[in-house]
Write a structure and sequence with these properties.
Layout lengths: L9 E7 L3 E6 L4 E4 L1 H14 L3 E4 L2 H9 L6 E4 H9 L6 H9 L35 H5 L6 H23 L7 H21 L1 E2 L2 H12 L6 H16 L15 H10 L9 H5 L6 H17 L3 H7 L5 E2 L3 E5 L4 E4 L20 E8 L2 H10 L2 H6 L5 H9 L3 H13 L6 H11 L1 H15 L4 E2 L5 E2 L1 H4 L9 H35 L4 E5 L3 E7 L3 H27 L4 E6 L7
Parallel strand pairs: 1-4, 4-5
Antiparallel strand pairs: 1-2, 2-3, 6-7, 8-9, 10-14, 10-15, 11-12, 13-14
Helix pairs in contact: 2-7, 3-4, 3-6, 3-7, 4-6, 7-21, 9-12, 14-19, 14-21, 16-17, 17-18, 18-19, 19-21, 21-22
The structure holds a DNA duplex.
Length: 570
DNA sequence: TGCGGCTATTG
DNA sequence: CACAATAGCCGCAG
């Protein structure tokens, strides 16, 4: 056996900035490093060996990234656990329980601060309890007591890694599950980088935009309230008399009665409904304008700017690589729902450009791939596959698009319903794939995406508490499950793409991931090269995500542009 | 204080 | 206005 780490081998890593680092290779090689030597040695190993670093969760990745180490390959146990077990909950205790075949609902409770728990300290050096669960004290932080504990923690991580590999390769009909685990781990590492790097913001421009909605920055809370009252008045002045006292525009019930006073009756006061009533009374227009200003004031105003944009003019939020139903990336701080009006404030730094690229019609292309429908796959060969589908169905492009989207969302009414029957006849395999998923989900059966992520239906039924009755809840589960198979696989494709871009575009940084869109920040001189890399990465992602057979049959496209300002996109 | 309802924004 | 998400404010229950 060699006394060196081997290229590409799994090396479990436990890190603590005060204690140091412990490394355990899958062939038995170990290394213990004090706090001063840890970062340089890890950086050196990354260069000379390039292992697949195995760690428990994102904080370890974040520690490396903060030390300016950005590994090429990793394995994030929490992230892989979420693929295997579904949902969002993870952590060493659950990772370990799953690997040991223990019931996660009997997970031992986290240690409390009460005095009586001190009795447990007797066996604090033993990470595995007699019942097989991981010790809560270890999970809570005993693992970072010293280098010996760190070493043990890394060993346990390596055990968990082996169990996860075994579990992934044992999944029936999911040959890409291990590849999914690697790209999803890379995405989690990317999340740590996104959190550190942030998104470049032109703060002066952002303040100009905000001011255009709600005026200049108020000096104090009193002025802020005064400004809000002034905005309220612009709506309330449309009412006759002085009886506008006590009307709260933020209260939908009050808004309804306000509208009733001018002779307008509505079930709810959503903007799209009021939009059609603009001509009825000038107060509608005033109210809709008030809503936009209120939105900026409360969610995307000066407070948002101060809270989430650093002194270095970077917008930062918390990133998750697989939150929610089917494993899409999520972000806080408005990074995923920034209003279009604020996008002119997202500007590359001096001497830099953005490479902005989005995957075209990703979900129907994904449907063609995961279902194996040859007719739908043929349509993906065109850059605008909806046009091809429209020709096949004998309908307009708009109707074809609505029908395909409706099929993936589970729509049963409206204009898409008629075209849906033609979809069934033309793309029976794809449609059957969707109805099978919907049927399984309605019955409360768990699903697994193409890449192997478990979509739990047992837990999902309770999410839709607003829908009354068992039948509508089952139907909601069906729509949820049907869509999760497509949206989830699309998320896996996107993260594979992002991971390839991250690996190939070493001199640039991904600064935003937006479901089907990437924003890369690069020095101006290398913009063209990076744009080529981003575009070419789509084809590499297709092969990595699906294997050569599917990648040859289904075509994926990206629209890539170089720009200085996000809003310069077409 | 926590939670569901309503509303807004985005893909 | 179907699928997904974050986030604010309001009313209401505890």
């Amino acid at each position: 056996m060699s006394d060196e780490f081997q290229p590409g081998e799994a090396v479990a890593l436990a890190l603590d900035s005060a204690v140091g680092a412990a490394l355990v290779g899958e062939h038995g090689q170990t290394l213990a490093l004090g706090p001063d030597r840890a970062a340089p040695m890890i950086a050196d190993l990354e260069r000379s060996v390039g292992p697949r670093w195995v760690w428990w969760s994102k904080p370890t990745a974040a520690t490396l990234v903060a030390a300016d180490i950005r590994p090429a390959r990793c394995w994030d146990l929490d992230t892989v656990h979420r693929i295997l077990a579904g949902g969002w909950r993870a952590g060493p205790g659950r990772v370990w329980a799953l690997g040991s075949g223990l019931d996660p609902s009997d997970l031992p409770a986290a240690p409390t601060d009460d005095l009586f728990s001190a009795a447990d300290t007797a066996d604090s050096d033993e990470p595995i309890r007699s019942d097989g669960y991981l010790s809560p004290m270890w999970i809570d932080g005993a693992w970072r007591a010293d280098l010996d504990h760190l070493h043990r923690w890394a060993e346990l991580g390596l055990d968990a890694y082996r169990w996860q590999i075994e579990a992934l390769t044992g999944l029936d009909d999911r040959p890409h599950a291990a590849a999914t685990a690697r790209s999803e781990s890379a995405a989690e590492l990317l999340c740590a980088e996104l959190e550190l790097d942030g998104l470049p913001v032109d703060v002066a421009e952002a303040e100009r935009i905000i001011a255009s909605f709600i005026g200049p920055r108020p000096a104090d809370a009193a002025e802020e309230r005064h400004r809000a009252a002034e905005r309220d008045h612009l709506v309330l002045e449309h009412l006759d008399g002085a009886s506008d006292q006590g009307i709260d525009l933020r209260n939908p019930g009050n808004v309804k009665s306000l509208l009733r006073r001018v002779g307008i009756e509505v079930d709810d006061t959503r903007a799209w409904r009021l939009e059609r009533l603009r001509g009825e009374h000038p107060i509608i227009d005033a109210l809709l304008r008030w809503r936009r200003a209120e939105r900026i004031a409360t969610t995307f105003g000066y407070r948002w700017l101060d809270q989430h944009v650093g002194v270095d003019h970077r917008l930062r939020g918390t990133w998750s690589s697989s939150d929610g139903a089917a494993g899409r990336m999520t972000a806080t701080a408005g990074l995923h729902n920034l209003p279009a009006e604020l996008r002119p404030a997202i500007v590359a730094e001096p001497g830099h450009v953005f490479i902005r690229a989005d995957l075209g019609q990703i979900e129907p292309r994904i449907l063609a791939a995961v279902s194996g429908d040859a007719a739908l796959a043929a349509a993906t060969q065109e850059s605008d596959m909806y046009a091809t589908v429209a020709t096949e169905l004998g309908v307009t492009r708009d109707i074809a698009k609505v029908a395909v989207l409706g099929a993936m969302y589970g729509q049963t009414t409206g204009h898409g319903a008629a075209a849906l029957r033609r979809l069934d006849a033309t793309y029976p395999i794809a449609m059957r794939y969707l109805t099978d998923a919907a049927h399984d989900a309605e019955g409360g059966h768990d699903l697994r995406t193409r890449g192997g992520r478990l979509v739990r239906m047992s837990a999902a039924g309770d999410l839709n508490g607003d829908e009354r009755g068992a039948r509508s809840r089952a139907a909601a589960r069906g729509r949820y499950g049907r869509n999760a198979m497509v949206q989830g696989a699309a998320a896996e494709f996107f993260k594979t793409w992002a991971a390839v871009v991250r690996a190939r575009a070493a001199d640039a940084n991904i600064v935003l991931c937006l479901h089907d869109e990437l924003l890369v920040h690069a020095r101006h001189e290398i913009g063209d090269d990076m744009a080529s890399i981003v575009t070419d990465a789509v084809q590499e992602a297709a092969y990595r995500w699906s294997g050569s057979d599917t990648a040859d049959a289904v075509h994926f496209v990206a629209d890539t542009t170089i720009l200085r300002r996000w809003s310069d996109a077409k």
